[in-house]
Amino acid sequence: MEPVSFTLEMGVVIATLCFTVFLFVSEIIRIDLAAILVLVLIGLLSYVPGLDTLADVNHLFDGFASNAVISIIAVMIVGAGLDKTGIMNKVAAVILKRGGTTEGRILPIVSGTVGVISSFMQNVGAAALFLPVVSRISARTGIPLSRLLMPMGFCAILGGTMTMVGSSPLILLNDLIETANASLSPDQQIEPFGLFSVTPIGLALIVTGILYFLFLGRWVLPNTSENDGTSGEGTSDYLTRVYGLKTNVFEVEVPIGSPIVGKTLLEVNEAHHLYIISTYYKGKVSMAQVVNAVIADPCRLAIIGERNAVEALAKEYGLGIRPHLDVFAEEFAPTNAGIAEVVIPADSKLVGKCARELLMRKTFGLSLLAIRRGEENLSHVETPDHEATSIGEVKYQVGDTLVAHTRWDNLTRLKRDRNFVIVTSDFPQDELRPQKVIWALAFFLISLSLILFTDIRLSLCLLTGATGMLLSRVLSVDEAYNAVGWNTVFLLASLIPLGQAVQSTGTAAWIAQQILVVLDGWPLWSLQVGIAILATGFSLVMSNVGATVLLVPLAISIAITAGGNPGVFALTVAISTSNSFIIPTHQVNALIMGPAGYKVKDFVKSGGIMTVLFLVVSMLMLNLVY
Asked: Which site in 57, 169, 179, 434 is 20 to 30 Å from 615, CA atoms measured?
């Protein structure tokens, strides 16, 4: 390797790197603003005499049109399109059904699934697609989003090491090996790697990541969360705090031949001071819209009421109370439905009418639980403070606050109804479009097929799916713009010129040379570890593709000189460039940072240990497998 002389430009680049790391770690300013500042600084410095090769000012902003940035924008739109159709809700429901509601069971299912998916598609794509799923799981379980997103994101990165198409460095590796073989003697030729050659290594890394967060997560993961208000307080807590109703939602099984069969919902509600708000019969969940509907068998009932009242009902009619919501779990998930408050205004046509007369559930999708009139609470549930009231027959007055259980999409539609003033504001106000699910799936599969089976550029593959979703009106153009995390886009695009400067000025080669001089004469295993650490460090400050292109030829030369296996050394570089957890410069880390409210110190704390574990496990597996 020809010696590289230190230059003024290298010193400027190193100083800029140190300044960037300082801004990231100290967080004096927002991290995306820090990235923009670094972009501007590099551009201005390139006009200084003697620093003209620091950056090509005519291409300074090319990062905003880079393959990585366009891919992120497109995959965010594709993910939002799938989410808009309700698919991600169903995926979340399946995970909750299998994993329950505890962090210890949900974390390995989510992280393991994303890890496997990212082994066949770009890790940022897998993470972006699962971001809405994890958000819904967080809302339904009350587990802070920050406790789930980092394990998911890290496993998405780790999953890229499971196959030779899982990450850009591994995709490039065989091409770099072919180039190196052209200058090697026949006895030094390196065999190309097969698609699943790295699977044992990647699998071990994913398992390590999952076990790391399962056993150490309580100490290394932050508890902050940016969840909306729909996930903070349950139905029971809200009703108790505001209206004194110590009620909850219960799922009750009605067996064949139960004495309750044949009775109407109204009879049961009034006799037992509870409220049947939904039914499950012949595999279909439906809101209990007609109070005169007759209970059939076998079925299940979703009942709001006090536990004593529900237990008395179950004892009288031989019903079974399930310990947790099962068939109604999706219907009453905080992301789909909840408690809403609406006020009857002075010009409402509902004044002087009652819920039974208006068929409130059928007409407006509101299951009335209570009426707040002045200082008085009217409810069908009997409490120590007041007797039960048949609120279905209470005539509405101006200023009445109606407390009802409703689906959020129904409440969104009611915002356009002048008969109500919606008081509740912290609820998901996007209407789902389940009728567009076929279009969304079709364009998602088209994108995925283009990625897996063609050589078309990744960004174009993903943008094809995103454009298709816009043309088929799965999403509106404005919704697509809102789906993009622009802070992530500016963070990554603004850092690309810095990575290019590290490489184009020879700074990377000079740093590599200095480290390799230090390692000269060390044992073979230590040389391999040194190469891995070097690749890890480079991947934090420049693109992993650039680090791979730079270091693979160096690693092969070192291996041949030291008598090691050049293929293993080259693979060490390609795998180690995925070891990017300490600061949020990796695309996946940048993606999850905003939604979970992470700080750079959170990545330093959690990612530091993960980086060491990655190095240890990858070195062990590389030497065991090869």
From this structure: 179
Distance in angstroms (rounded) separating the CA atoms of residues 626 and 421: 69
**Burial of residue 308, with CB atoms counted within 10 A of its CB: 0-12 exposed, 13-18 middle, 19 or more buried:** exposed
Q: Which of 352, 378, 393, 590 is nearest to 492 (CA)?
A: 590
- Residue 160 backbone phi and psi in degrees, to 5: -65, -10
Among residues 316, 334, 332, the alpha carbon closest in space to that of 280 is found at 332
Instruction: List, in sequence order, every residue forming a beta bridge with 385; answer none if it has no partner.
Output: none
pTM: 0.67
Q: 331: how many CB neighbours lie within 10 A of its CB?
A: 18
CA distance 531 to 23: 27
pLDDT digits (tens, 9 = 90+) for 166-203: 787 887 788 888 888 887 788 888 888 887 899 999 99
CA distances in angstroms from 254 to 248, 259, 314, 317, listed in the order given: 19, 9, 9, 8
Coil, strand, or helix at residue 300? Answer: strand
Q: Are 579 and 618 in contact (CB under 8 A)?
A: yes
User: Under a CB-based contact definition with an 8 Å cutoff, are residues 566 and 524 in contact?
Assistant: no
Give the containing element (helix H, strand E) for 504.
helix 486-504
Q: Which helix (H) or strand (E) holds 32?
A: helix 31-45
Q: What is the DSSP string of 387-425?
A: ----GGGPPP-TTPEEEEEEEHHHHHHHTT-TT-EE---
Question: pLDDT tens, 309-366?
Answer: 899 999 999 999 998 888 887 777 766 777 888 899 988 999 999 888 888 888 888 8
